[in-house]
């Protein structure tokens, strides 16, 4: 089964998501992706037969700019995206400085060399997925741990050395995704 082909077919079938990808592309961010929940929840909604816009909390945009570790430009990018789509909650984060953020510093996470490397550190495998719309309208998929878990609705912690077991357990307890998407299989190991 070609999971990347299935994923791109799902993404292309969502006009609202393609519009968000086009708006993000217009920012000309370096090494960017729309990632995490916007992609994960869209796939799970489609696979469950739900409207794809259901259960969309925010739109995570990640990029990699080693010349702005503090992420000062991120606020401007976020403002521009909010202006284009005010009904969406946007979160734009420069992954070059993600290891310096309060929420990751205590983990001793190393500096990443790209957005893809930073995405690999996210808590669970189906969240570690990003999609970029290229200038020629092709889609580039970033999935450092593969797409199988996302496309087969399995939730597992990211593998070692990326794994943060305590964060995974806390997120599974808080998110209760299995109540929203009953076909998910929530796992306890990779």
What is this structure, in a nutshell?
The chain is an alpha/beta fold and 190 residues long.
Describe this structure in words.
By secondary structure, the protein is α/β, with parallel strands linked by helices. A hairpin with a 5-residue loop joins strand 4 (130-133) and strand 5 (139-142). The strands form two sheets. The chain has a five-stranded mixed β-sheet with strand order 3-2-1-4-5. A two-stranded parallel sheet has the order 6-7. The protein contains nine helices and seven strands. The longest helix has 13 residues, at 72-84. The model is unreliable at 102-106 (pLDDT under 50). The chain has one domain.
Highlighted features:
five-stranded mixed β-sheet; two-stranded parallel ribbon; 9 helices; 7 strands; 190 residues; alpha/beta; single chain
Average pLDDT value? Answer: 92
Strand residue content: 5-15%
With strands numbered from the N-terminus, the spatial order across the biggest sheet is 3-2-1-4-5
Shape: globular
Radius of gyration: 16 Å
| SS summary, helix count | 9
- Largest beta-sheet details: 5 strands, mixed
Euclidean distance between termini CA atoms: 21 Å
Number of separate domains = 1
Number of strand elements = 7
Q: Structural class, from helix and strand content?
A: alpha/beta
Summarize the helices and strands and which ones pair or pack.
Elements (H helix, E strand, L loop, with lengths): L2 H10 L2 H11 L7 E3 L1 H12 L10 E5 L8 H13 L5 E5 L7 H4 L9 H5 L10 E4 L5 E4 L5 H4 L2 E2 L9 H11 L1 H4 L4 E2 L4
Parallel strand pairs: 2-3, 6-7
Antiparallel strand pairs: 1-2, 1-4, 4-5
